[in-house]
Design a protein that fits this description.
Elements lengths: L13 E11 L3 E3 L2 E9 L4 E7 L2 H4 L4 E12 L2 E5 L5 E7 L13 E6 L2 E10 L12
Parallel strand pairs: 4-6
Antiparallel strand pairs: 1-3, 1-5, 2-3, 3-4, 5-6, 5-7, 8-9
Length: 136
Amino acid sequence: MQSLRDIVPAALNNINTKFIVLDKGRIAMEGQQKMCLALVADETAAVHFQMWGDECDTFEPGDLSRLNGIFSYNRNNLLLRAGKRGKAEKVGEFTIACMETPNMSEIRWVPDPSNSKIYVPEAVISPFSRVFPPMN
């Protein structure tokens, strides 16, 4: 199992991790398919999780989930998702300690000057999710 804090953009993007769903955005239609975004976290960091189709109805805040999937880095956003060959599954509820910072989706990544297949953090855009701001 990978910790969310250890996820970085790279040539290989397979991910096997466990997290809790903290918040979930509204469901939108992307062509013919449902899509929604969620904020998820483990004991090391938080990240945005993109759900498609039935996943949008399956996962709710408080769900403990396991993901065997991929991460995408496009338009300066790091997103977890199951992908076509992966699987996201609910494995419990309310049973994990978690951290909302750093949010790995709020880091700007750039290619390493010495190896373009590796990305390194350039800047922290925001310590918290700008999509799901923390409640004070």
